[in-house]
């Protein structure tokens, strides 16, 4: 995880349209870190997305060896100022992107130790079986630059009253969590003195790639790179980090 965290620190210094910030200026989300090109291209995250310990269970869960990355995101919930996410389903954001089926999977990798006080993610067990729920735009999270999509309040209240208790997703750095795009989840503010860093890699079957839509969202949230992924070396993250250091030394010498 050290190599990935080090590269995340580098990414946080970049100014680009695929990085979103809190109103305080702190980085909230960094998108599209898995590609070879672009201002936030990261060899470490690219290697992470293809490591066998991650990609094999993803392929098994999706039932296909032909999968691609729909998008990647790094959430850097800053100490004491990182704000929350309202209860939502990820497909509540993606429903207008042209995907034939709401059968997509996200792999969340903890880049730092996460406890509830860090603004941990909470998930409602079994909620992916409820189907796609009605979402609305909520701009009450004043600390964030953009409005959020959230499950209608009356609906989520009823679900919380009748379902099992939401489960906090906590663990050590390196913990992997796979969840369906219809799983209801959300998080609170980070009340700790440590930032909570987590990487989110969303996978999709190539056969479920999006149809053309009238006003497609940017490539950083709706990838059109549908080339099937190949499982790569288990030590690819460390190798990528070493190549990055060598390139930095080379550039400094010019």
From TrEMBL:
InterPro entries: Phytyl_CoA_dOase-like
GO MF term set: 2-oxoglutarate-dependent dioxygenase activity; iron ion binding
Gene3D superfamilies hit by this protein: q2cbj1_9rhob like domain
Keywords associated with the record: Dioxygenase, Oxidoreductase
This protein's record includes keyword Repeat: no
Protein name, as recorded: Phytanoyl-CoA dioxygenase family protein
Organism name: Paraburkholderia tagetis
